[in-house]
Every structure is written in C-alpha cells, then in structure tokens.
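Deliverable D5.2: sample structural annotation.
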Amino acid sequence: MRCFLAILGLALCLGCSRDRSGKKAAEEPVPDLRLVLVTDLKGYLEPCGCTSNPLGGIDRLAAQVGTLRDGKSPVVLLVAGDTFFDTSQLAPARVDQAKRNAKTLAAILDRLEVDAVLPGSTDRAQPPAFLRELSRGTGFAWLVMNGDTELLRISAGDLRLAVIGVREGTSSETLAAAVGTAQAETDLTIVLVDGSRRDANRVGAIDGVDFVVQGGLDEDAPAPPHRVGRAWALHAGRQGQGLTVVDLYRQKRGEPFVDRSEWSRRARVEQLARRIEDLASRIAGWEQAGDVNRADLDAQRARLAELERERQLLDAPAVEADSNSFFARWIELPKKAPRDEGVAKLMRKHDKAVNEANRVAFANLKPLPLGPDEVAYVGSEACSACHQQAYAWWRNHAHGLAYLTLQQRNKEYNLDCVSCHVTGYEQPGGSTVTHNLDGALVNVGCESCHGPGAAHTKNPEVPVVRDTPESTCVTCHNEEHSDLFDYEAYRKTLVVPGHGLPPLER
C-alpha cells in the first residue's frame, strides 16, 4: 500500500526532490494513471501573436504532452468539446480555409496519440461527408458521431478504463444505461460530455461515474476540480491555452476518489480568506453599532471561528492512506513554453498552403463599389505631401509595419489575420484579401483611423475624422488580439509632432 505522506506536499512535482535541509527526499510513488485533458480547442492551431503573452499553440501543447509521457505512468489523452471548428455556420468564403485547418489539426492530434475525441456541436454541424473524410486515417476514436452515447474501452497499465461520450441533452435514463453497461470489467469510468454544467451535474449524479470531462463551457481558464455527485468534474479551458493533468492513485475498485490537489487547496484557501475577511468586517460593524441581537452576534462569531478552523485544517490535511486519490493541475502554455519542432514544421507548411490557396481563390475578389455618398480610399502615401512628419513617423510605427508581420509568416492572405493588417478591409472603395490598390492599402494606414481620404486629398477643406473614437480601435484592439489595450493610454502614444502636436521646426 502506497504511503501518501510523501506526495501530499509535493503534488506538483515529478520525480524525487529534496527537503528543506537539502537531503534527498523519498521518491514519489508513481501514479497508476495520468489523464491529460484538452477541451474546446475550437480549431486553434496557434493564438494571435499580437497579445502580450499569447497562450496556446498546438506545437506548445504537443511539446508538453511529450514531456508528460516521459514519466513511468500510463498516459491517456482525451479531447472534448468544439475541437475542429469554432462556429457551426461557416461563411462560404471561409469553408476551404476552415477545412484545411481541421485536417491539419486532426493530423497533429493523431501524431500526439490522442485516445479519444468527443466532437462538440460546432464539429457535428459540419457536412457528414467531410467529417467522415476528416476521421479517415486518424488512429483515435471519434465518440458519438451517431446516437446519444458511445462507449470506448481502454487498457492503461493495470487499469481498465471505460470512456463514455455523451451528447448534450441526453436523458438521464440513457446516461444511466450507458454507465451500467460500462461497469462490467471496468476499474475507472470517465464520461466526456459536451454541454452545460447542468449536463455535467446530471452525469456526475449517476452511480459508477468517477470523472466527468466537460467541453462546451467556453471559459478561458479552468477552475479546479469540483464534485458532482460522487464524481469529479474537470475541464481544460479553451483554444489550447493549456491542459489539465490528473494523476490518479487507485487503491480500491468502486470507491470514490479524494481530491488532494494543491490547485484545489489554494483555491479553497483563497475562497475562505475572502469569506473570513468579509464576515469579520461585518461583525466589527455590528459590534460598533451595538444594535444587533446578542444571540445573533454570537452565532456569527461562531460561524467565523468555524471558517477559521476550516482554513487551518487546509494547511494540514488529513491523510487517508488507503483511499483513492488524485492530484489535478492546470498547465498553462505561455509564449516561452517549449515547442515541438515537428509539429511547428507542419504548422508552417499549413500556413503556406492556406496562403497560396487563398491567393488563388480570392484573386478576382474586388472591393465593394462606392455608393452615391461614399468616399474611396487612397492610401497613406497620398497623405504624405501635406503631412510629411506624420507620414515619416507612421512608417516606423507598428501600424505602418502591420502587413510585413503577416508576410514574414505567410499569412497575408489568411482570413483570420488580414482584416486587422490592411486599411479599408471589405469597405466600399477599400481592400479585400488580395486587392489593396497595388499595396497602397497594406498596413494600418491613416485612413484606418481618420476615414477614407479621397475627397480630403482633392480638397483639404473637406473634413476627416480627427479624434478617432474608441469604437474604431476596438474592432482590432480587443481582448483576443490586444489584451493590454487601454484607449486613453494608447491614444497618448499616437500624439506626436506632426500628428496631434505642432510639427517640429526644421
């Protein structure tokens, strides 16, 4: 029987470590199973590179999975939720790029030796013929492509796993029947569900379920495991920004698991600290006011003492050496995280293929025609004759180099990127994926902020937008693409000589 004393304080470490005296500590027991979970990838191969610390990237995820497989424990890699697509209804112009993206992602997941994928509602909304084509050649199981539930059996070391895929809205009776079927010759039952918290709670309430992996939450980062019935619900955020790892130590078949995660302990400590601070403040106010019933005040003091005792117990958790236990952790994938070079090479090959396909497909896509009262775009160089200092400053600003950043990565024709790196995109008299006035409208030019300038260049008395509103900026500088954007602070950096300030004298 394993001794859990060694692992209670070392839940986030791997291998052996040293105690505070510098002496080598006892080697940690090897988990019976390591679950690696990914939820709601939403077709993301990599994040937008314009944020301060872009999280995710399938190449970073691949490198992390490789590291997790280096241990002695058997690893089961499960994916749930919207995986290959981020929307159910694709605009016709985006179908080809989205399909290419899905094929590349499926090939990479296969390379990572994923055990099973439960596609989400956005995936299942795609044409069945394409989904069949997408699944061909992959070695992992595609769960619940038909029906409401599907059972997959996996052998992992000495454990026999039942992995059940469940669709949103499946009846409790159908769920119970699926779990009942899974119980035969099973050591651990894991249910993958794409749906609401209510769906996860209904699954967890069924006797025999150990873990519920939930897709469909559309949350940036996961919360620690939470109990649903006798089971534990888990998820791993979205867009591949990280993954959830669960190390399991199984002692008794059929017994529930106890959460020993430092992740959970810290979250509970923080929650209790907030409750203690709030209640202590209210009690102090009641004592000062002197108008609260004494019995009620004593009851609140007793409640505060109980919360403080619970907080102290979290620093020295009870040890149950013969219980089934698990340690869950969230591994974020920041910009500096290692990359899998083989996967990164596939991604760059994919970018080149998408770029060339879009260049050909949209070669004849012209800008929208001008309406009777609409003004054409002319490009920033047309502004330079009258605004020389502003133009010279702009050319070396990030806005003036925006298109180059796409060209360097073979993404200037990528539909997910180009709109924020050119001027007048899909506007009357503006630009398209491929047409930009022979380069005059590449980059985030003057007219992106001040409006189309054909009339102003002909007659300077015709006004343009001088004070760009925040609503214009946030079409691109939003949370997903520009997480540190602050309109007032950013606006001040744009006010320079010749551009909001008097020109410098020569």
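Annotation notes: The chain has three domains: 33-260+317-341, 267-313, 364-501. The CA atoms of residues 104 and 350 lie 7 Å apart.
The annotation will be released with the project's public dataset once the embargo ends.
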